[in-house]
């Protein structure tokens, strides 16, 4: 198990390195630079001076090494779009709304999806099952900005129960959280349903019935525990994917979150911010998959205990 | 009182292709302490009969109908879920073909035996654990205490089947259904497991229903044999009578296809043709398409049982 953890950690580090190189190269291969915009033209001399000050006149590999040296010291530089603060300050400011809304979306959505999937699996081919499957398919196929618009239309415009957008007070969080929750609900409903049906068909369930266990005990202790093994591996990556903000949800609900910076940093050739965002997401996904693998191994005695015979 | 009292049992599966008649009018009685072997090839309805009386078939895809379907004196067709749960594992236990898939992989052997004990009896966990260890020792598992902490994947098939038997016996059932309990095991282990089942049956004084396609297995373990074919009983009687003087052509063919029965260099005799398609079974006697003695009458109707001596009967037109 320890060896397994070490091996996985090394692969996390390697992934991180490879992604950083690829992103750095791709980022600089996009034509144009941070001072080529038409809205604020600068003269050739000023441009050269600015580029030199930011170190952008140096060869690419030197720029990369300089940047990564900074990263290792938690210095991600200064965003070109917002030179008054460091990248870290910008991230810690903008990430809070994304983390709260996206995080709550997954944390509330996943249990709902699990319940929906369980209800569907235990009442196979019933109205509940069809409802859950339809709901899950719609949740996965309707784009999140359409869901957002529908939520605004119904709850803010027609019913006038909730404010349509903004960040200030918690009542403004409800609709974006609901929009974020759509994908976790749908994903978990489908996952839970198929994992449970798969378990219910396994021979050991017949044995449990033949032993005289109650149906509740069979479902909640044995089937759910077995079904949970594939399910835990989805949770953390989904959490990371959602809690780093979605430009669609944040734009629809005018939330000052992280989502918009993923796009604007590329448009503005804001290299430090772009690198920081990508590296942050990469690292979090690597760690999420790492933890998911550990959880999978820990829940599964065949890996945790090992040793056939 | 009969532990198993089945009359007129039919089991029909609704499948995509249509209705499959797995069991078509079976009568079966097992007295206390009696051991009965149900023999037949795949699809003869032997396992389904046992699963039906335990109500372990997935309903409503499986439709069970019977004039009488009783297990340890309880009408299982009328019983509710709770009654069935209290019957299973306590009055009637069952062991299965493949021990490797019969345990929940994420719980230890000990957990799974203890939960069976505690599902039926009010005993503390340490008491149940001590009992579980005793049971494992009784099925000849060495270092029982250690094995209680093992997960199923850490044990071999033979060890798992022993643990399975220990678990089945944990509430001292009146009857044990053994559904091909040695089919998935190595040949060397098979005899040990059969011997163990036989010993425990005598020791616990319980009834035994041994479902198998292997005549060698029934010869070693049971008093009475029921031969099934195409969802119907063809012949039944004491084990010696069936082996020494089979009456039904199917029983004879089955015995002739046993390897090494006479010894020497005799070729194996197979039964020509294939098992009947349960979705569309032959008319009359289900064996008639493969029977060397069959005539037009055999295809017309199923013969009634001829009672040759009490407890010894066969259903064949050619006996009359």
UniProtKB/TrEMBL annotation, chain A:
PROSITE patterns: ABC_TM1. The chain crosses the membrane at residues 12-30, 99-122, 134-161, 173-191, 227-249, 275-299. It is a multi-pass membrane protein. It comes from the Bacteria. Residues 95-292 form the ABC transmembrane type-1 domain. Keywords: Cell membrane, Membrane, Transmembrane, Transmembrane helix, Transport. Gene3D superfamilies: MetI-like. Its main location: membrane. Coiled coil: none annotated. Pfam families: BPD_transp_1, BPD_transp_1_N. It is found in: Cell membrane. PANTHER family: DIPEPTIDE TRANSPORT SYSTEM PERMEASE PROTEIN DPPB-RELATED. Belongs to the binding-protein-dependent transport system permease family. This is Peptide ABC transporter permease. It comes from Devosia nitrariae.
UniProtKB/TrEMBL annotation, chain B:
The keyword Ubl conjugation does not apply. It is a peripheral membrane protein. Residues 1-255 form the ABC transporter domain. Keywords: ATP-binding, Cell membrane, Membrane, Nucleotide-binding, Transport. The keyword Membrane applies. InterPro entries: AAA+_ATPase, ABC_Ni/Peptide_Import, ABC_transporter-like_ATP-bd, ABC_transporter-like_CS, Oligopep_ABC_C, P-loop_NTPase. PROSITE patterns: ABC_TRANSPORTER_1 (PS00211), ABC_TRANSPORTER_2 (PS50893). It is found in: Cell inner membrane. Belongs to the ABC transporter superfamily. This is ABC di/oligopeptide transporter ATPase. It comes from Devosia nitrariae.
